[in-house]
Amino acid sequence: MSFKNIFDNGGDEAGSAEKSAQALNKDTPGAGDVSEAVRKLESERDPWLVRQTAHGAFDVMGFLGPLFQSAQGVAAAQRQASENPGSVSGMASATNKAFGPPKVSIGDEDMPKLEDLSKLIANRRSYALIATSLGTSEGVAVDPSLNTAYVADRGGVKLSAVKVDTGAQRTAASALGDIGEVQLGGQGTAYSTDYGGARLLEVNLADGSSRKIADVAGAYGVALDAAGTAYVASWLDGQLIAVDLPGGQKRTIVTGLGQGIGGVALDGRGKAYIGRKDGGGHLYEVDLAARTHRVVTTLSGASTIRVALDGAGRAYTIDHVNGRLYEITLADGAQRVVASGLGTCEGLALDTVNGWIYVSNRDGQLWQINQRATQALGGVGKVVP
């Protein structure tokens, strides 16, 4: 229903009520002029007695008639305003000329506080370059409790500790050989692979010392479970090797993954996920109990060098050839690029506690990416230093 119909109907109803009041006032016996003497006599009676002429009711009818007439006028004016907004604008313009435009005054107490703006900006940040000059970064691990990321420098054969809130960095350990990956083991220890030396190492983060746990040919990616087992991906042989900690006993879990397999991630429910850097960009799922594997998805023209799981059915992997971060749905293998511009990226870690993704590259850069931002349509887009 239009405004015109509403106002027309309101006016018609008021007009009909006015005509009814006029007819009642005309046709009712006793209506009309009454002498002042009669009114005075009736006013002295008990007001609760029934009056024969009910002059009070006639007075009310005399009031209602003009009221209904006024209602008709209001309805007509409202209809005109709805049909001709210019008339309202003209009135507002006249008011503005008479009294001037409204004035706005903003004082210091009305301004947002700097700390509030800082929080707002921090909450909206989708990515940040945390640190540079980290050497030929190959792998990265993060400890949310210490607000620290550990970045493997393959060229410098060392492990750097970086404070993710300030970017401050220091050398946590050195002389680690041809370091390919790092994972944190708790209680101040980390585990790294030495590809050239074919070793799995345990690193003491307190004093920087290290020791060999086992010999593993082509040791590259590594992941740890809660039971004290390290799962090492052999780049050369395409095998996943389980190494018991701290004794170093080994057993082969699966073979036939092809040369060039890289990072390993565990879901905590008996499945391992392995990315193949060379040979097609496959992401494998390995059933640790059945010792079988399948291809979850293939990233055409990409390199799935590392894998990180979010615990909600999604995997993240980096394409070091094209500098991209992928999100993969494990149930159906659906994939999409959520960030680009990451350079020759080699390291990947996920902080599920605070919702950050960390990526390191061979240019010595460490990127921090908001995980929630990657879930939006289009993801983060291209990162820019």
**Inertia-based shape:** globular
What's the helix count? Answer: 6
Q: What is CATH's topology name of the largest domain? A: Neuraminidase
> If you compute it from the alpha carbons, what radius of gyration comes out, rounded to the nearest whole angstrom?
41 Å
* Cα separation of the termini: 57 Å
Largest sheet: 5 strands, mixed
| Subunit arrangement of the protein | single chain
Which secondary-structure class do the elements indicate?
alpha+beta
CATH superfamily label of the largest domain: TolB, C-terminal domain
CATH class of the largest domain: Mainly Beta
Number of strand segments: 25
- Helical proportion? 10-25%
CATH architecture title of the largest domain: 6 Propeller
Strand order of the biggest β-sheet: 18-19-20-21-25
Q: Could you name the ranges where pLDDT drops below 50 across 5 or more consecutive residues?
A: 45-55, 57-61, 114-124
Mean pLDDT: 80
What does it look like?
The protein has two domains: 3-95; 127-382, TolB, C-terminal domain (Neuraminidase, 6 Propeller). It starts with a helix and ends with a strand. It is built from six helices and 25 strands. Helix 1 (3-27) packs antiparallel against helix 3 (55-83). The strands form six sheets. It has a five-stranded mixed beta sheet with strand order 18-19-20-21-25, with no helix packed on it. The protein has 385 residues and is α+β, with helices and mostly antiparallel strands. Strand 12 and strand 13 form a beta hairpin.
